[in-house]
Amino acid sequence: MSFQHAVAARNRGWRPFPVDSPLSPDCVGLHKTTPCDGQRGKHPAVAFTTATATEPADKQLEHWFNRGPRNIGVACGPSGLIVFDEDMLGALETFAAERGETLPSTYRVRTGRGWHWYFTTPAGLEHGNSEGALRGRHVNVRGRGGYVVAAGSVHASGHVYEAEDPHAEVAELPAWLATAIKEKPARPAEDDTTAPTRTAGRDHTGRIGWGDRHNALVSYAGRLRHKGLSLTEAETLFRVRWLDCVQPLGQIPEAHHHEQAPADCNYPVTWDEALAKLRDIYTRYQPDPLADLIDDQDDALAMVRHNLDFDGKPPQTLPGRTTPLLDDEPIPVAPFPRLDDAALHGLPGKIVAAVAPHTEAHPVPILVQLLAVLGCTIGAGAHIKVDNREHAARLYPLVLGKTSDGAKGTSFGVVRALFRAAIPARPEDGALRGPIDSLVFVDLPRQVSGLSTGEGLIELVRDPVDEDDPGGVDDKRLLVVEEEFVGTLAVGRRDGSTLPRTLRAAWDGENLQTLTRHSPLHATRPHVTVVGHATPGELRLKLDDAAMLGGTMNRFLPVASRRTKLLPEGGNLPAELLAEYGPALAEAIDRGSRAGEVEQTDDARELWRASYAHLRRSRPDGPVATILARAAPQVLRIALCYALADRSPVIDRPHIAAALAIWTYAEDTAEWLFGPHVAAADLDPLVSFIASAGEAGRTKSEITRGFYERNKPVAEIEAVLAELIKDGRIRQETEQRTGPGRRAVRYYA
């Protein structure tokens, strides 16, 4: 639907671009270095001022909007628009009535709170995003440099932006309204400090008026970010500014100013809402490293009022900074990985986007396991040749998630349902036909679990010993699904076990054989795919040097997983969805099973050459470097799977780009999985110490003194705490305080 709405906007002469959608499991906004702390559904997914410099073609819109759930943004300036965004229903009409004016009929979009009023910009008018006389009237103006979320988008509340009349004409901005937005906002009389006025910020009492609370808080948040304060430091000062906001009588008791609320502004601004504004600013913008901390009386007054001298002790400072350095800030932990949009290419991307609303599983495990099962089903015929070796579409996904909310099995259940829709059970007459009657192909590959020996694996795909041997296997495709992959690793650690070596040879596509039997087993051209599921904590505990250094683990593709939503009704895929994508998968399998060598296009080779040095870059010794050691062949195999899914005879540039995006996710998963290595013996006693504090929790200082008796460096203590946080065995929370002093971070088990 987003694509059609974007095309409609483009056809009006506007400049649409993709925006994050709350229907996407993770925010796809450009702030990819930190988690999204702002409101979902409004962050641009591209640099919109650059992306909207020219009118987008259909191909560009399809690239933007058919890769997963997206909202639609419209850049106002390049579109020749000026849009009035009501925060309260009827606010713009009220303003017009007060001036004795009426608003012309024009294109409008219903939002969660009011209307977006669209007007064309009169010739010669250059206007940005300032409200002028509308300041404090619950109406935001979006012009040059601004954008609005357009019809067809979804608000974080679930409300859908809908046009009042999709075919309505856009009226020209009335002259009186053009004048109004150029006026300076009215200010109250100096002696009138009691009436609920709409001031442009704080008045001489320090009070932030009813209509100025949002703008005042956002502006101050920007100043704090500009000056380079950490988020923890900024929260302290920002809270002081929030306390100066006028609040309705009987609400927000700690606020400094309470008044009878006017009829058009009767809601409070809670601390959570204010804090979301601050975090959003910190997510979107970077600080100015040359800015001084205290450059005006407001900041100095806030620090005095908030008693930021930390109990009279000399504050710690950073070079070039005059603010105290908080010694109890949250510990940075490798964030949960984020998937780049490039991975949502072609049929796999469309399938993942389609199933996302109907499953609790994370989209990336679905995507990678879909590619792996597709490659397994197609078989060993389709391949890409590198270094004189054939690499078939053979992947070993390793899905990693906590027992409680990893949704690992759920993700594979989605993939299994899709392939059962593509290849139904064989009928009694033995003729296997897919959803497309003209296609005839083989069954799904045999699926097994419970690997225990290398010999047992070879037995499942072995050649006959001779022509009279009934035990040979004609179909060399095998799908191994180990939902307890740690147990498989434990089996491989036994003395004399051949399982690790056999798994490596199977990934490499080598012929398999046993050498220690009187009747040795052989398996020619096996096509084995292994899907493993594990919890991060157990995997780290069970991995040993043999598994890492022997090369077994670098055949696996690590993929972080977690539950994205709760679906009490079961999360079953709709029949119509399976009916739509089953035939598409069937066609991809049919074409892929008849493919041979697949080559790259010139565009694909160009991107591959540009990325190769980065894939082969040297990494610091450790488990992360070891598990990512086969970057180049992994990326090419993933790209091959994408090409086969597209029914393409060649690997094109988008296939390489998609594969690189998957590999980046795998790299981030490895960092998230391993991070700093901490011995298990250091973990359990610390968890017990933290748990003994009960609901009070422990601060970092208490842990340093009470548990480690000041005998361990802070960096090492933080590494241990980070390990426990990643495993979910402890959590860190910042104290919620309203009085003076710093808010410490506490740890709970």
Automatic annotation (TrEMBL):
Annotated DNA primase/polymerase bifunctional N-terminal domain residues: 6-177
Region Disordered: start-end pairs: 185-207
Organism of derivation: Pseudonocardia hispaniensis
InterPro entries xrefs: DNA_primase/pol_bifunc_N (IPR015330), DUF3987 (IPR025048)
SUPFAM superfamilies: Prim-pol domain
Protein name as it appears in the record: Bifunctional DNA primase/polymerase
